[in-house]
Amino acid sequence: MSNEERSKTLERSPVTPLAEFLRGVDGGPVFFGFLIAVAGYMFVTAAGFTASARLFPRLAAGTVLVAGALRLAVTRLNIGVERSESVVLSGGQSEANDDEEASLESMLVLGFLIAGYVLGGFLVGLFWLTPPFVFLYLLYNRQPLWRTALLTAVMTGVAYGFMTLMNLDLLTGGF
């Protein structure tokens, strides 16, 4: 079958309008709306739990809802964001490919760091892996050393506070 015959076959496929629609949909806002809806549902339905059981769902859902409100404030209302003009001097296509490759590399590194954090947390405990995870992630993103050290200490404090508040054993692994 030639390429011309194959393209005519694809044009007549009953799935083609759906595929074209899905190509045109930006998944970011859809996923954002889904997260907000799930967090809202979780926050509301947690009211039916006992006081000790509703703490975690309310904290988790509240965090997502506050982060969502902040994201909306920054992106939609342009609060606190100063955008710079991007100028392409030469080689616009190769720079776009480099950006895509850098984005893919960043996504892969983050995926490996998260997988290591979860698996290592299962082996030795999440609390012990929080500082190395934050430190490595910030170093990979080329943050200054003072900011990396400060944020590592802050996130270690957050992990300790979470462990204390929720009365969880994050010091030991799953074995």
TrEMBL record:
Protein name, UniProt field: Tripartite tricarboxylate transporter TctB family protein
UniProt cross-references to InterPro entries, sorted A to Z: DUF1468
Keyword field: Membrane, Transmembrane, Transmembrane helix
Highest rank taxon of the organism: Archaea
Residue span, DUF1468 domain: 32-163
Pfam families: TctB
Organism of derivation: Haladaptatus paucihalophilus DX253
Transmembrane region(s): 30-49, 55-74, 107-129, 149-171
